[in-house]
Each structure stands twice: as structure tokens, then as C-alpha cells.
Design brief:
The complex is a heterodimer. Chain A is built from 5 helices and no strands. By secondary structure, chain A is mainly α. In chain A, about 75% of the residues lie in helices and about 0% in strands. Chain B has 5 helices and no strands. Chain B starts with 9 loop residues before the first helix and ends in a 10-residue tail after the last helix. The chains are: A mainly alpha, B mainly alpha. Chains A and B meet through helix 1, helix 3 and helix 4 of A and helix 2, helix 4 and helix 5 of B.
Chain lengths: ~210, ~150
Amino acid sequence: MTDTAADVLGNGHVASHGPPIGAPARPVIQIVPLKGLPVVAVVIGFLIASIGFNWQWGLDFNHVAGGALWTGIDLFVGLVVGPILGRLSIPARAEFSARFMPKMVLLMPTLVAMTLASGFQLALDLGNLKATSPNHSWLIASFIVVGVMAVIALGLLEPANLAVLFEMRKPHPNGEVIAKLMKRFIYTAGITGLMQVATLVIMTRVASQ
Amino acid sequence: MSRTSPQVSLPEAAERRFAPVAELCAAALVLIVVGGIYMASYAPRRAPLGLPVALAVASALLVVASLILLSRTKDLAWDKFFLVGRWTLLSYVIAAGLIEFAFVKDHTRGDPLVLITAMLVLFAVIVPLIISFTVARYQSQRTQPETSA
């Protein structure tokens, strides 16, 4: 890898071949960080065991820890990191994204699986899904919120994330393609933020009834 | 159907439009999600199956339509499509299996289990299709050798 992020201009053209003197080397992009896979396997194994044995603490841990991280990361990235990233220079943006996005490829699906699978099991165990439960309608609302987030994440953001990573692996990435794909994150940040705030309201209502 | 990235010049590629494979699959995903929410909202009772069956059939038709369009697509980076497709398929088959496990564990049986299984199969096909098509369509805009990772 001899190219630098500074090679890529916003108009999608390549400024020069080879690294300018003093410019940082562009990081090698591994689309799926293989070192993270064993951690994911352990977390998913823990989740399956918690559901399989109806382990109350395991279900609570998966739901609370997974949900807190999912919501926290989503809001932090959407409301804090995203706007900062938008004001950085294109090379800085490219370098940050090259290191940040592969981690999100593993992290977010794992957190979502932890939260949703354990949450559904907890709702069944605690009787919150029964039509007579005061929490029933709140849980249906949370299903709808999760459904909206799932369609955005699986139908728009994850494909864009991987397409950007593939583009950035090229010696001379096309800035136009990356910018076009990254717009999806900007357009959906507001909806995702709103859904996450709705999740916080719903879950605190459910916990306090 | 060639499985190598096509050699396409940038100006030509920039004007090229692809069939709405990802859009059709996204619509199919919406139908599956709505059906899943409908069925989950009845748990632990048995949900009426009319609406979710209709949604699953409509979703399957959209997937078939998108596969037909995909098979007619020229100049797609098929090597990237299959590379991304097989790994994402593996990961979403695991995810769908996890959800199936949860329903079986919660004593879902009979027709509802068959329907949920069908919906999960669709889910496990739709998401990899969207992801691999999106990657491949942008990879086909111009051909460059990849760096080793």
C-alpha cells in the first residue's frame, strides 16, 4: 500500500500516483476485522445459552448492555461524530472512515442481535407481550420502531457501508461514489436518532409500569 | 454471465443505470418486517395467518422479480457480487437460524412455524441480495486492481 488518502479528491479524480512527501500512508482496509470474529462468536454463544436456558441474568445483561450500547453508539455517531466528520477534510474523512467502518460491520449487528433476541425472550417470560399487560401496546410500538430501524440499517446503511469499504480498498478510490453512498448516512441519521429516542421513551415506560 | 469485473470506461459507466434490484428487495424486506411485527404482536397467542401469508407471498414475488432483473443485468461486477453474496448469505443464515431457534424454543409449532420459517428464508436471501448488488453495482463503475488486505 503506497497510496495516500490525500490522493483522492472530492470530485472523484486522482491527484497523483504515489504518496506526497510527509503525507500519512493510507491504512490497509480489512472489510471484516477477522480478529473480532471470535469475540462475536463468544457473545452470540452467550446469547444462545441465555435464551436456551432461560437464564434471567444473561437475558437482562444481553438486553440492557446490548441496548444501551446500540442506542448510545447510534446517537453518538449520528449526532456528535457525524457532524464533526462532515467538517473534516476529505483525506481526514477517508482515513477515519477506513478505520472506523470495518469495526461497525461487526459491532452493530452483534449489538442488535443481543438486544432484540434477549428482549423478545424477556417480554415473553415477564408476560409483557400478553394482550392484558399494560406494556403490550408499548412493546408493539417498540416492534414498529425496531422494524423501521431494521429496514434502514439492512436495506440502506449496511450495503452502503460495505460498498464504501470496497471502493476505499482500491488504489485510487472514486470520491464521487463514496460521497454518494455516504449521503445515505446523512439522510437517515435524523430518522435513526428519532427512533432511538422513541426506544428510550418506550423502554423506560415499560420498565416503570 | 461472466464472473469477472467488466472493463468499462468511467464516462460510460457514470451514465449507466441498473435495474431496480436493490429497491425491489428493499420493498420485499419491508413486507417481511411488517409480517414479522404482525405475528410477534400476537405472541404468545397464535396470530391469524391471512395477512402475514399475503405479505410473505408478495415479498417472495418481489424477490423473484428482482432475481429475474438481476439475471438480465449486464456489466455488473459479478465476481464481487458472488464474493460478498456468499459471506453475507452465511451471516444472515446464522442470524435467521438464531431467530428460528427462539421461536422453536418458545413452542411455536404447526402452520405459524412454517410461515415464520418461510419469512426467515426470505429475510436470509433478501439482505445478502441488497448488500451484494449494491457493492457490485458500484464496483462495476470502473475496474481497478484491489490492494491486498
